[in-house]
Specification:
1 helix; elongated; 67% strand; mainly beta; 187 residues; single chain
Length: 187
């Protein structure tokens, strides 16, 4: 709960201070440091109590430090989801993702920016299942796995930005693929 509150407060502070300075909405840049909030919507495959797909909102912060062609990247995101089923089962799923690595960005003309990223990914998860008043908590171990990704940002009229990306997290069992699509507005 403290982590969620801290991330929400930091995101609001950065967004408001950036808005007041007239920079791009949600981002902050000072010298070689760039910080931006990460807000998204994801679909997740679940297996409990029965196999199904669920959707949830996630939020966090991403920071890059260094020149664009080779910078240090850190990202923290938080997701929470609560589900209730007709069978009387309630499931709560909390996860925090951490990413630390390197990022290289390349301008392709005036309107395109392509990036590559790679590093280490870790996930903390907590699952709670409540049935007939009995709550069972499962907290899987935190594993660190390598990740790699790429993406493209398209600058539209120096006001709007359309972003698309793909990351692969190389886990022991099978690879986890994360695709993203984003939209930014410069105010």
């Amino acid at each position: 709960m403290k982590t969620q509150l801290l991330l929400a407060v930091l995101t609001i502070i950065i967004s408001l201070s950036t808005f007041a300075q007239g920079r791009s909405f949600g981002g902050f840049k000072s010298g070689n440091l760039e910080i931006e909030p990460v807000v998204g919507y994801e679909r997740v495959q679940k297996i409990l109590p029965t196999p199904h797909t669920s959707s949830r909102l996630f939020y966090g912060l991403r920071a890059n430090y260094g020149p664009k062609y080779l910078s240090l990247e850190a990202e923290v995101t938080q997701a929470k989801e609560d589900e209730s089923f007709d069978t009387g089962v309630d499931i709560s799923d909390n996860s925090t993702n951490y990413m630390l690595g390197l990022r290289s960005s390349f301008n392709i003309g005036r309107a395109l920016n392509w990036y590559l990223r790679a590093g280490a990914h870790a996930r903390d998860s907590k699952y709670e299942r409540t049935q007939a008043g009995v709550t069972t908590t499962i907290e899987p171990a935190t594993y660190v796995n390598p990740y790699a990704g790429t993406g493209l940002a398209i600058n539209l009229m120096n006001v709007f930005t359309l972003n698309a990306g793909m990351n692969v997290i190389f886990t022991d069992d099978e690879h986890e693929y994360q695709s993203s699509l984003g939209f930014g507005i410069r105010i």
